[in-house]
Amino acid sequence: MVVFAAATGLRPSELFALEHGDVDRAADVVQIRRAYANGRVKQTKTRLSRRAVPLQAIALEALDQLRPRRESSLLFPNARGGHLDFRNFNRRRWKPVQKSVGIEPLRDLYDLRHTYATFALRAGVAVFALSRFMGTSIAMIDLHYGHLAVDSYQHAVSLLDALALERAVDAGWTPARRPANPHSDTISRPHRRRLSADGGRPVELAATFQSPLTDSNRRPPPH
After folding, report:
1. HSE toward the beta carbon, residue 130, CA cutoff 13 A
2. What is the mean pLDDT of residues 142-167?
3. For residue 112, which of 6, 56, 131, 152 is within the disulfide window of CB 3.0 to 4.6 Å?
4. 2-154 architecture in CATH?
């Protein structure tokens, strides 16, 4: 569950409320529909909270390692098959494990959400996309993690430079168009050949004609 939390950025309340039916293996996403807090399951009501979070490979591997629990529909149930309690899990499981491996200072389970945001921004995930995955606003992402996206400026410049170079190459291979003369009423077409009257050499004729808007048929300007 800890690896899955760090790989999805879910809130602990959303993590504890996940059910097997929320995981879409075909689309590699997990649907966030509800949250469990203070002993109650609540349906997510806001547009930002209801979302589909993409499952990266490490998250799918974490799911594959779960023991099947047919007696519970929950993805991460407690020993009795019910919902995990945040405080109990944090005190009895999460913090003792950190102490055993020498992590200082001790981290809260919610910090795994920050871990997800940090790695996502370092990987170049757009802030807009990240805000949708995490179910929060762009302003909140920028407030807490904006300093991590500074190195993305160079990435953005490289993308823009690559696009400009691509357009320059396309322009070099595209034949230049001859500008039209807006003041000319004569349209020229390729020359055609016509045999002379005596059957001799063909005579080159320029296929020129007057456009419908010649001086002879152009409407007079309104008074």
Report:
1. 27
2. 76
3. 6
4. Orthogonal Bundle (1.10)
